[in-house]
Write a structure and sequence with these properties.
This protein has helices spanning 3-6, 22-33, 45-55, 69-83, 102-109, 116-144, 180-199, 220-228, 242-249, and strands at residues 13-17, 37-42, 59-63, 88-91, 147-152, 204-211, 260-263. With 270 residues, the chain is of the alpha/beta class. A 7-stranded parallel β-sheet has the order 3-2-1-4-5-6-7, with helices on both faces. It starts with a helix and ends in a 7-residue tail after the last strand. It comes from Methylocaldum marinum.
Amino acid sequence: MTLAGRFDLTGRTAIVTGAAGLLGRHHCRALAEAGAWVVAADQDLDTCAAVADELGGTVTAVAADVTDPRSVQTLLEQALGRTGRADVLVNNAAINDMFESPAAALEQSRFENYPLELWRRSLEVNLTGVFLCSRIIGAEMARAGRGSIINIGSTYGVVAPDQSLYRDPEGRQRFYKSPVYPATKGAVLAFTRFLAAYWGHAGVRVNVLSPGGVENGQDDFFVREYARRTPLNRMAAPSDFMGALVFLASDASAYVTGANLLVDGGFTVW
C-alpha cells in the first residue's frame, strides 16, 4: 500500500458525535474528504442536517443523546443500517462552560462557588458520554475485529488552565476556567489508555486527539495573550486538526494506540 493509500478511508464508516459544533463539523469534513461515509450525530438535528447538506452525499445527520444508552444504540443501528459497518468513532461531544450572565460569570466560575449541577452535567456529557459511545459502538468494532476510536481531549487535560489568560488589560479577572473541564478531559486520557489495553487484542485502536485553544470570537486581549504564550504565536483554526484526525482514523496510524496526539501549537511545551 502506498503512503497516500494508508490515509484513504474509502469504504469505511465514521461516526462523529457533537457534529454540529465548531470542531465537529470540521471532523466530519476531514473524514468525508478522506473518503469515509460519515454519520454526523448531535442533539441538534437541524444544525447537524445543515452540516450534512453542506458537506454532501457521504454525510448523513442523526439525532443522538450521548448520555442516553438507548439513543446511542439507535445511533449505532442507524449507522449499520446504512453501510453495515462502524469503523471509526470520534467522541467529540462535550460541554465547555458558557455562563448565561457575563456579570455573574466571575463569581459563579470561582472554584469555591462552582455549581454542583454544572459539574454533574459536564461529567455526564464529557465523560459518561464517551463511556457509553465507546462501550456500545466500540463493542461492535471489537466483534468485527477492527476499528479506531478517537476521543477528543484538550490541552487542559494535560496542563492546568492558565487563569491569567482570562484577565483583561486592566488586570480584572473576567472569569475562571472551571474545574470540571480539565477534570473530565484528564479522565478521558486515563479511560483511553484503559480501552487501548482492553481492546488491543481485538484490533480496536483507541487514541486521544487533544486540540489547543481555537480562535472563535473571543476578546482581543484573550486571543493576544493566548498567542503570546504559544510557540507558534497564534490560536488554532478549526481546520488545524483535520490532518491529525484522519491520521488517527486511518491505517497511517495502524501501530498507534493509547496515545495522546497534542495539536496545540506548542502550548504544553512549557
